[in-house]
Amino acid sequence: MGAVITAADGLPPEVLDLVEGAGRVCVLTGAGMSAESGVPTFRDVQVGLWEQFDPTELATPQAWERDPAQVWAWYAWRASLVRGAAPNAGHIALAQWQNRQGSEVSIATQNVDDLHERAGSTVLAHLHGSLFALRCADCDRASDAAYEQIDEPIAHLEPPECGDCGGPVRPGVVWFGEPLPRREFDEAVEAAQVADLVVVVGTSGLVHPAATLPHLAGARGVPVLEINPQESQVTEAADVAWRTTAATGLPLLVASL
Prior knowledge:
Largest sheet: 7 strands, parallel
Radius of gyration: 19 Å
Shape: elongated
Strand order of the largest sheet: 1-9-8-7-2-3-4
């Protein structure tokens, strides 16, 4: 484990040392990236009628096979909450960094909320899929269907039908027990290993295999910067762990370039 920086004002010199001269940067983002946008965490959506359910049991292929209308209703509720959120200053700073001349910034995210795109970024890899990239559960073709906007949680909501085969349309997320999209994971690994710097923002480092990215980068000698107000499983792999939030730290970092 490297230096842990808790300075509250300005950009710490240890962070500046890592960022200066880093032309190719790989950024890995997790739930903490969107927390300041008011995006509810996986478990925060368990309110009202959903309180009796374990979200890890709803987000599975088995739950879908058992009761697709229940799973669709839960995801429609999540989608309605996400639509009410806006990109925060951290998302916007990343987009500015990515669009900065002379910088090559690749973003790999564990988030499914698409806030990076709404801020103007291009995402290299959606490691856990996208909430809004709907596809057919039977033929796997992409669907142009959409979630219904719902203002209150409801127990059951029939999913739309696929326009090609008539099968049920499912959320575009990676469920527990499903593999990560291979191409996107491989591209994220490559970006991390050839980068001049890996920046890990707001992820616990508990969800594998995405959590291996900073370790794989470190094994190649690529420095790792963690931006997280709390200690995580990433901290031990970080050359510098900066105890700040995405919306505070990333604008300071990008402003220094």
